[in-house]
C-alpha cells in the first residue's frame, strides 16, 4: 500500500498515518530493519464514545441505546456487525492491530495475538497517560522535550461522556469488546511498570516540563480556538464539531512552520506533507532531467505517497486522538 519512492532517490524515515498493522516485517521493508514501531491504545468505553460520535455524522447510530425510533444500530454493533465498509465495529483496536474478525471469539488466538504484539511493538502509548507515554517515547528515541510537544487533535467541543451511558449498556459494550479490554489492560499495566522503572518522581518532573513547554508553545502559536469548519478550508474538514486552531500570523519564539504543523488537523497536515514530498521529488527530476520532467510530475506522481520522507517531521506535529 505504500509506494516505493526509492526510484525518486528518497527513502522513508517516518510513517505516521492511519494504517492497519500487518506485522513488523512489513514495516521493516518500508522504513528499514531498525524500525521503531509505536501505537496508541485508548480506554475501550472512551473509544466507543468516539466511534459513536464519528459514525453519527454518517447516519449510523451505534449509541442509540434507548432510541425509540428503533434503528437497531446499537444491537447490531453488539452483535459484531462492522460498518463503514467493514472498517469500524467491536474490538476496533484489535482489528486495527491486525486481528481477524474470524478469530476474535477464540481466546487462545487472542492470547497469542497479544503476545505477538508485545514482542513486535517497541512502545505502546496509552491515551489516558499520554504525557507519561510521550516522555518514555522521548527517551526511547533520544528526542528533546520540544520534539514531543503536541496540540490535541480531533477533540470534540461538546462531549457525550461515557459515564452517561447506562450501566447495563456499559457492561454489554465492554463484554462485546472483550479483546480490546484485554489488550488495553495488558499494555496499560506494562506502561505503568515502565513508568515505575523510569522513576515516579523523575516522571513527574518531566511531565511538568512537557506541559509547561506545551503551554508556552500554545501561547506563542495559537490565536484562538473554534470549530473545525470555521478554521480550516472545507476540503480539509472531516468533522465540523471538533476543535480547530487559528494560528497567529506573527510567531516569535516558535517558528511559524512549526506552529502551522502543530495546529493542522489530519487532512491539512497530510496535504502539507504531500506538497513537500512533491517538491522533493520534483527537485530529483529537475536535477536528473531538467525543468520539463519536473513540471510534468504533478500529473504523474501517485497521490498515495505516504508519510513521510527524510523530511524532518517532529512528533510534536501529530497527536491523532478521536
TrEMBL record:
It comes from the Eukaryota. GO terms for cellular component: Golgi membrane. It is a single-pass type II membrane protein. GO terms for biological process: glycolipid biosynthetic process. One of its GO terms (molecular function) is galactosylceramide sulfotransferase activity. InterPro entries: Gal-3-0_sulfotransfrase (IPR009729), P-loop_NTPase (IPR027417). Keywords: Glycoprotein, Golgi apparatus, Membrane, Signal-anchor, Transferase, Transmembrane, Transmembrane helix. Transmembrane segments: none annotated. It holds the Pfam family Gal-3-0_sulfotr. It is found in: Golgi apparatus membrane. Belongs to the galactose-3-O-sulfotransferase family. This is Galactose-3-O-sulfotransferase. The lineage of its organism: Eukaryota, Metazoa, Ecdysozoa, Arthropoda, Chelicerata.
